[in-house]
Amino acid sequence: MIQTFTQNDVIRYVYEETSEEENLLIQDALVHDTEMLEFYLDLVDLKIGLDTSYREPSSRTVDNILAYSRNFASKHQTSA
Questions:
Q1: Is 26 buried (19+), middle (13-18) or exposed (0-12) by CB count in 10 A?
Q2: Does pTM surpass 0.70?
Q3: What residues have CB less than 8 Å from 57, skipping those under 6 apart?
Q4: Which of 43, 50, 76, 78 is 20 to 30 Å apart from 1, CA to CA?
């Protein structure tokens, strides 16, 4: 029986959401399907880019959000 995998299966594999059995089957499919392998390699590159581009907001941004939240809460508490 030939197992076919979708792009969703490859995404799950990249994010380690597949079982050990699925991992083996997907790895075998990657060896035999160049189109799937290209998709996998593109996806890994994207994931690495996303992981390295993660940033935290500046202290100023956090302070502005908290100030807005306090102001919003105090306006609605006094009108209730």
A1: buried
A2: no
A3: 65
A4: 43
Q: Is there a contact between 14 and 44 (Cβ–Cβ < 8 Å)?
A: yes
3-class secondary structure, 32: helix
Q: Residue 42 phi/psi, 5° resolution?
A: -60, -45
DSSP-derived secondary structure letter, 18: S
Whole-number pLDDT of residue 79:
55
Nearest CA to 7 out of 33, 30, 40 is that of 40
9-53, pLDDT tens digit by residue? 999 999 999 999 999 999 999 999 999 999 999 999 999 998 888
Listed by start position, the domains of the chain span 7-79
Q: Which amino acid is at 10?
A: V
Amino acid identity for residue 17 in this structure: E
Measure the N-to-C terminal CA separation of the chain; round to a whole number of Å: 67
